[in-house]
# Entry
Amino acid sequence: MKAYLGIDVGSVTTKFAVIDESDQLVVSQCIRTQGKPIAVIQQGMRDISRQLPEGTEIIGVGTTGSARYLTGVVVGADVVKNEITAHAVGALQYVPKAQTVLEIGGQDSKIIIMRDGIVVDFAMNTVCAAGTGAFLDQQASRLSMNIEDFGPLALQSKTPVRIAGRCTVFAESDMIHKQQMGHSVEDILYGLCEAMARNYLNNLGLGKEILPPVVFQGGVAANKGIVRAFEAALKTEVVVPPHHQVMGAIGAALLAHEHMSMNGSVPTKFKGFGVSETEYGTSSFECKSCSNVCEIVVIKTGRETIARWGGRCGMWDV
Amino acid sequence: MGKRVVIPRALLYYEYFPMWKTFFEYLGAEVVTTGETTRSVLAQGSARVVAETCLPAKVYCGHVISIAEKADYVFVPSIRSLEPQVYNCSKFLGLPDLVRGTVKESPPVLDIEIDVNKGERKVREQIHWLGKHFTRNPFKINSAYEKALEVDRAYQRLMREEKLTPPEAIARMFGIEAEVEKPKAKRDSRAASGGSDVSILGGGDSSMLTIALVGHPYNIYDTYINHNLMQRLKSLGVRLVTPEIAPEGALDLGTAKLAGKPYWTFEDEVVGAAGHYLDADVDGLICVVCFGCGPDSMMTDIIQRAAKARGNKPLVTLTLDEHTGEAGLVTRLEAFVDMLYRRRADSRGLARASV
# Structure
């Protein structure tokens, strides 16, 4: 079987997806990035190669996410794409008529507006990560519960309390205040869901025409409480597609497919699953050539430098 | 030897440097500028001023701090109003005081106050007051002023007609090395796109995307604070147009179209340019603003509404701040350019068969 591999290395989790030539998902994998993207890519490659059917040949690789360039040099990518495009392409695969994509990941969130299968507008969260997965994680652990239980518990709320969602610092102090007043955990959790949906729509959704079908993807889409809060705020059904968590990786794989079929006979740059056993070393230094003092990162396999970047002028780039 | 005047390479440098330089040199002064913005320029500037100050003002203070050589003056004008009832942002109004208050070690601040609401006579008085630091001959000051205005018109014309950026036009006029960073690496993909004598705005053909950059020149042409925005777009295969190269009068028309009478002094560079390019033959607009800029936050809203009403002209707003990480900016640029390419492919019936 011939297949395409997509890798989405986000701030919190790293996602892998393999699709076949008819764009159907074969296997997928999601692991925590844990601040070590290269090691996690290697671990994921090992896991994926074990799950793939015998005789699978990878004929195209796409990478996306905030570590897309790093991943690209480690595995040998044919196409390196931004997350907006990857998520849009992934969403269209499952909901071809989608007009709005809400995506909330570990540290960033995006809204993508599409018409007739084409992205027409988008926004990403700016300096503030309020209302992303990392905050929900943190709150769940403060209440010593599993993040998986967050959603179902929030759905049991009868009278949600109002939580300030503008800033996580305020949200947390509001939650603690409400909890000390005696409100139930369910009501506080659903209140938080509402605050997050409100904050998202007020920030990212500002001035955007949010039309159905609305697709909700990214890790946070697993949280049923947030899904319901979005449905209540938007007064429309919110579709959470299957594999919502690995949608960026699926999009990257689809883009790899598109790229390879447009470029005819060019072979893939994929280095093979063996990269999981290669030693990668990274180091960095401050360039002293001018007063910008750029931080240059060097990525090596053995003695060979495979990538070097980070400077403004490009004098170190490989 | 004449007196030495430093003109910081920040804020209104991009608008008026040729004019000011001509004025001072006509009066026998020696004019020097500070270098390009660097990490230490910004770091020193922002360490000195209160946190709420906008990024461009921090950069400005950083430039004044960076003045190493001995100089008689640093020229810091207060441009209050250039058109009746249209005023500048308070940061520009108070710029000389900001510099005096924060950069104690700076050369003596030479400031003038330009406010046309007080009448042409007042403006002349200010010019004469400025000129008197260098000569006692009022006729010479008058000629210097006329000469300066003439050079300014030539500068504007040069940018418009030759499609040059302000740094390129300044280089052309005075033979100063252009600020556009020259690619040094052998394998740099940017190398193809920018030699020093080719304008960054030139070249390309109609198969390329055209994107209009709108915003103040101190945001668009300061390659440090905008993370080399123009070169990045060029290397994504994009042709660029900017406010300065719009036809004469087009920006004022654009402002009138979107906002009626302008409210802010440099509104034409943002609202006016957007008004012009929203209805021009470009694929999309990138609005470049700074975090913490009050006037721009309002102007951005005007532009967003206008773009939305037109429905068919993609617009993205890039907010510059002190981040050294450029990932957010790069992702937005790539996504925006991707979106424009895919729209174009779609409109030509080349929609992705596979997806």
